[in-house]
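Figure 6 in text form: structure in, sequence out.
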C-alpha cells in the first residue's frame, strides 16, 4: 500500500526591506568600528543637526533591490587612525551586519572619507596654520 502524501504549498508573499532599515543597520555597523568619529551627511543633515533632530542614517545612501543591496558611506575619521584599515574594517562590518540581519546580498560597500576629526583643538589649529 502506497502512503498518501499531502503537499501543501503556502503562498508566502514577498518581503521588501525599506531602504531606511538597511541604512540604519549600515550606519550602526560603521560607527562601531574603531577610528570612526562620526558619519558625515550633506547640507540637509547639517540642518537637521542644528534643529536638534537625530538622523541615524546620516551619511548613508543605499540602493536596495529584491535580493541585493549597494551601500555608500560618508565618514569622518579620528586623527591618527590608519584610514585604509578603518575603511576596510567598515566594509567588513557593514557587509556582515547587513547580510546577516536582512538576508540581502551586499554587492558593494563604498567608503568615502569626508574629513578628519581632531581630539585636541591645538592640533587642528596647527594644521590650519601650516596650510
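Output sequence:
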Amino acid at each position: 500500500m502506497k502512503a498518501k502524501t499531502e503537499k501543501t504549498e503556502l503562498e508566502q508573499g514577498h518581503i521588501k526591506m525599506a531602504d531606511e532599515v538597511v541604512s540604519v543597520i549600515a550606519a550602526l555597523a560603521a560607527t562601531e568600528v574603531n577610528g570612526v568619529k562620526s558619519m558625515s551627511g550633506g547640507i540637509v543633515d547639517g540642518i537637521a543637526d542644528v534643529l536638534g533632530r537625530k538622523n541615524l542614517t546620516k551619511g548613508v545612501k543605499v540602493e536596495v533591490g529584491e535580493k541585493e543591496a549597494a551601500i555608500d558611506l560618508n565618514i569622518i575619521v579620528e586623527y591618527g587612525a590608519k584610514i585604509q584599515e578603518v575603511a576596510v574594517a567598515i566594509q567588513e562590518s557593514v557587509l556582515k551586519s547587513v547580510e546577516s540581519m536582512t538576508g540581502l546580498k551586499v554587492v558593494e560597500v563604498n567608503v568615502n572619507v569626508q574629513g578628519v576629526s581632531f581630539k585636541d583643538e591645538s592640533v587642528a589649529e596647527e594644521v590650519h596654520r601650516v596650510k
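Caption detail: The radius of gyration is 21 Å.
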